Amino acid sequence: MSDIFQKDPNTYKLLTPGPLTTSLSVREAMLVDRCTWDDDYKTMTEDIRRRLLKLAHAGDDYGVVLMQGSGTFGVESVLSSVPSKDDCVLVLVNGAYSVRQCEILERYGIAYRRLDFAWDEVPSAEKTAAFLDEHPEVTIVSMVHNETTTGIINDLGAIAAVAKPRGLAFFVDAMSSFGAVDIDVPKLGIDFIVSSANKCIQGVPGFSYIIGRRDAIEASKGNARTVSLDLYDQWRVLEKDAGKWRFTSPTHVVAAFHQALLELEAEGGIAARAARYARTNRRLRAGMAELGFTAYIDEAHQGPIITTFFYPSEDFDFKSLYAFLKAKGYVIYPGKLTDRDTFRLGNIGEIYDEDVERILAIMREYVEAHRAA
Ligand SMILES: *Cc1c(COP(=O)(O)O)cnc(C)c1O
């Protein structure tokens, strides 16, 4: 399946969590120019929506909205379209993407509260419950599932158990987990969940998708603060025209995403993909630990998608490691912590066991060369 490795010496595989390395067949799906209102294209859109619903374990009481733009556009669409002027959103913050949710709410002047946790700590159900008891104005709880900032995987079930009995709506940014971690959306009582084309479904960048409770989408009619990101209106047109998008859609990206969904199914669905990611992530961390690299997130809360490592020494030179790996066909990711020097290794996309062994061998070569120096 690793058919795309280095046909061209200038290409490299991405150890970044989206855009990520896609299969040759996903990229080949983009070689055709498609008409946005042609039936074949609309059928493709509808099939994507149906498949996403199924991956979410959702039935007819949920709907799927595809939204142009990167993942943030999807998150912003929900946050700027769903809350009414009587709502107040509680954002559980333990990384840069939950901070971004606060920035969005702030910008629109939508009422919100934030509850901060350490970035190597999952939001605790007890603290959230205590906060909600003191803040009856909160009507919506919003959180990130896998915080790609650090690689920590937050506990949706624990927070759902606090939010749902209180009758609160529940928003989840599952950008870097949907498709790779099984999420039973109705069972968790999730009202809106967002992900994008270039994460664990393994498509290319260009749109995001929102799976939401149909009655909640309908109830949001008239609440949107923008035209382009109006969730209800986008949904209304997709429904009315059976797969025609409201404005110009990224046709090549949509075709690539459709192919990526077929390949997810061929791999064995979410269970198989979850197993591959978990295995490569575990091996990568174990191999890095042998080379002296310590992970930021402890084993118990480490997600299977991306790992943050501390610099191993004061004089560690990230740029030099980056260049060394890139010359050998792999691109890595800088850290996103403000108080500690870190870098990140993602393992989603077309990354297989043999890649991990190769990456670790290159890392060993680098470490040994620098130890000798
Ligand atoms: C990728 C990602 C996003 C969206 O980022 P974009 O750059 O807009 O695609 C949002 N939340 C999380 C957790 C992510 O990993």
Task: Name its key features.
Aspartate Aminotransferase, domain 1; single chain; binds pyridoxal-5'-phosphate; Aspartate Aminotransferase, domain 2; 7-stranded mixed β-sheet; alpha/beta; 14 strands
How are the elements arranged and paired?
Blueprint (H helix, E strand, L loop, with lengths): L12 E2 L9 H5 L10 H17 L6 E7 L2 H11 L7 E5 L2 H13 L3 E5 L8 H10 L5 E5 L1 E2 L4 E2 L2 H8 L5 E5 L18 E5 L10 E7 H6 L11 H10 L10 H17 L1 H22 L15 E5 L7 H10 L2 E2 L1 E2 L7 E5 L6 H20 L1
Parallel strand pairs: 1-12, 3-4, 3-5, 5-8, 8-9
Antiparallel strand pairs: 2-10, 6-7, 9-10, 11-14, 13-14
Helix pairs in contact: 2-9, 3-4, 5-6, 9-10, 10-12
This protein binds pyridoxal-5'-phosphate.
